[in-house]
């Protein structure tokens, strides 16, 4: 049975178990033992041995998200999957999420939404994205994710080096303050991702066919020209911004 939980404050388990120093040492130790692995070979020991019950994953349910979701579902379909519903997403993303959850048999989707009280103060008319994207991303992504990660020591992300920019030198295991971040697809390239889609007959995000390469919130996502190689070119196009800030959480 699929459980889709819209997280409330009282549902959140508090407290990670490591200090910053402990997380740093743990990441170094994990890198020594697992740093040569990727994909399922890396996900399995992280989920079953190293962080059993203390690990989650985040997913945007964007164009490439199905790849990591598929690998995770093969390891543990009950793993909690955090989905940040910024309330600015495309309707297609919500429908695609439902389609993938059904296809992959994922049973534990945690839908995190912005704090209504914070929005009422800082973004009462929902137009903050037009004047302050950093603050808007904080209210709609970073703060909800901080709440969602409480109680976990590790999280799996779908970031890849081939997306470029700050992701160029992405390690497979890194620290994020008191937590460990694991990036099982860090070394995957575009054709590796395509293989995962093909081999498992995964559906594509419906907006991909309309020219979107990377999909986030509606006001900050554009189509890109055919043949564009910069996967994230359509995100905050024309602005000096390439990341929403969730990967700076500590
Ligand atoms: S991507 Fe745009 S709309 Fe979404 S949270 Fe960030 S600034 Fe706001």
TrEMBL record:
[4Fe-4S] cluster binds at residues 136-137, 217, 220. Binds 1 [4Fe-4S] cluster per subunit. It is found in: Cytoplasm. Residues 55-222 form the Phosphoadenosine phosphosulphate reductase domain. One of its GO terms (molecular function) is adenylyl-sulfate reductase (thioredoxin) activity. Pfam families: PAPS_reduct. The active site is at residue 244. Pathway: Sulfur metabolism; hydrogen sulfide biosynthesis; sulfite from sulfate. It catalyses: [thioredoxin]-disulfide + sulfite + AMP + 2 H(+) = adenosine 5'-phosphosulfate + [thioredoxin]-dithiol. Its cofactor is [4Fe-4S] cluster. The keyword Transmembrane helix does not apply. Gene3D superfamilies: HUPs. InterPro entries: PAPS/APS_Rdtase, PAPS_reduct_dom, Rossmann-like_a/b/a_fold. Its EC number is 1.8.4.10. One of its GO terms (cellular component) is cytoplasm. Keywords: Cytoplasm, Iron, Iron-sulfur, Metal-binding, Oxidoreductase. GO terms for biological process: hydrogen sulfide biosynthetic process; sulfate assimilation, phosphoadenylyl sulfate reduction by phosphoadenylyl-sulfate reductase (thioredoxin). Belongs to the PAPS reductase family. CysH subfamily. PANTHER family: PHOSPHOADENOSINE PHOSPHOSULFATE REDUCTASE (PTHR46509). Catalyzes the formation of sulfite from adenosine 5'-phosphosulfate (APS) using thioredoxin as an electron donor. HAMAP family: CysH. NCBIfam families: cysH, PRK02090.1. This is Adenosine 5'-phosphosulfate reductase. It comes from Thalassospira alkalitolerans.
């Amino acid at each position: 049975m699929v459980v889709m939980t819209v997280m409330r404050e009282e549902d959140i388990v508090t407290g990670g178990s490591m200090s910053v120093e402990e997380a740093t040492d743990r990441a170094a130790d994990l890198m020594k033992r697992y740093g040569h692995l990727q994909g399922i070979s890396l996900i399995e020991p992280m989920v079953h041995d190293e962080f059993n019950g203390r690990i989650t994953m985040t997913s945007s349910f964007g164009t490439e998200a199905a790849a990591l979701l598929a690998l995770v579902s093969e390891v543990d379909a009950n793993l909690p999957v955090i989905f940040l519903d910024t309330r600015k997403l495309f309707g297609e993303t919500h429908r695609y999420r439902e389609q993938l959850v059904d296809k992959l048999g994922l049973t534990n989707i945690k839908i995190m939404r912005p704090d209504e009280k914070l929005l009422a103060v800082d973004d009462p008319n929902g137009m903050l994205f037009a004047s302050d994207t950093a603050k808007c991303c904080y209210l709609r992504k970073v703060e909800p994710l901080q709440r969602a990660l409480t109680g976990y020591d590790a999280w799996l992300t779908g970031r890849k080096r081939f997306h470029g920019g700050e992701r160029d030198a992405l390690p497979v295991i890194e620290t994020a303050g008191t937590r460990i971040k694991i990036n099982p697809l860090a070394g995957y390239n575009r054709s590796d991702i395509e293989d995962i889609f093909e081999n498992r007959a995964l559906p594509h995000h419906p907006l991909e066919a309309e020219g979107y390469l990377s999909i986030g919130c509606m006001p900050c996502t554009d189509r890109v020209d055919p043949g564009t190689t910069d996967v994230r070119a359509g995100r905050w196009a024309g602005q000096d911004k390439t990341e929403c800030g969730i990967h700076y959480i500590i």
